[in-house]
Amino acid sequence: MTKNNTFLKDVNDGLSQYPKYLSSHYFYDKNGDELFRQIMEMPEYYLTNSELEIFKEQTDSIIGSFGLDKSQGFELIELGAGDGEKTQHLLKRLIDEDFKFKFIPVDISNNSLHQITERMTDLFPTLEIEGKQGDYFYVLDELFISDKPKVILFIGSNLGNMADETAANFLNKIAINMKPGEKLLLGLDLIKSQDIVLPAYSDAAGITRDFNLNLLKRINNELGADFDISSFEHQPEYTEEEGIAKSFLRSKKKQTVYIKDLEKFFEFAENESIHTEISRKYNDEILQRLIATSDLEISTKLLDRKNYFADYILIK
Ligand code: AVI
């Protein structure tokens, strides 16, 4: 099935079920990539700065926790690399300390991969870098072909966009590919109160709203739909008890939407919503549960000063 056929099928399945659902996976077209970059700069979106602080101020602890042998080369694989803003601090220290390694950023977006490769090559002309384009869920096996030791980075709380069962399967899939003693650095947003988490998903400037609505624009542009974007609104939810931020698109009125490529109409009741995203927040217990059936163990946990975010180093 071609990429757009999968999109078409997922939109048809998601809008035909009750409650309606569209995967946040589809947020990231060129416009979505740009909106996410802007979200990361919003004052309310504390996740980026919290993890950046760990990468800037605890770089030696991160590198120490990898337990690398300087005389041996290794591969640093970053899943869902994005713009590399945090990783550049790690790369700089590794280069300064004379570690021999190849950096392998993996991203679904060719556009992001191109940008990170340019940025890192400009910053570190001697860095060996080899980007890999693809959905990290599917290209994982191909990343472990060489027998060089590996360090895997999966930061930014990207795991949080997966349901727990999918997240556990994904961690297990990574673990199966790792050799004993290898490390996975997993960056996770921690469970905290609603007054901190909810604004991160409903910033005052409305960028997160546009990010969510962009999904409907994408369906209009790519599948010939006639969503009236102004008649849907961004609806974020979070409770500390549940620990999962959720985003919905709520229909402000009763309406019918036509999707040309499906030759099909979809009915929306007033206030009916489409569930578009989960952003799970974690604690040690939840992570332990997710890795319970894998060969991974928590070896180190690094926190930012406010205890908002954790970088866990997991060892196989
Ligand atoms: C990419 N991911 C970890 C972001 C998050 O926080 O769940 C995506 C995002 N959605 C809304 N704002 C940011």
TrEMBL record:
Going by the entry's taxonomy, the superkingdom of the source organism is recorded as Bacteria
Q: Name one GO biological process term.
A: methylation
> What keywords are annotated for this sequence in UniProt?
Methyltransferase, Transferase
Pfam families found in the cross-reference section: Methyltransf_33
What EC class does the entry list?
transferase
Q: Which GO terms describe its molecular function?
A: L-histidine N(alpha)-methyltransferase activity
EC number, as in UniProt: 2.1.1.44
Q: Which InterPro entries does this UniProt record tie to the protein?
A: EgtD_Methyltrsf_superfamily, MeTrfase_dom, MeTrfase_EgtD-like, SAM-dependent_MTases_sf
Q: What SUPFAM superfamilies does UniProt report for this protein, alphabetically? A: S-adenosyl-L-methionine-dependent methyltransferases
Q: Which residues form the Histidine-specific methyltransferase SAM-dependent domain?
A: 8-314
> Could you identify this protein by its name?
Histidine-specific methyltransferase EgtD
Query: Which source organism does the UniProt entry give?
Result: Kaistella antarctica
State the gene name recorded for this protein. Answer: egtD
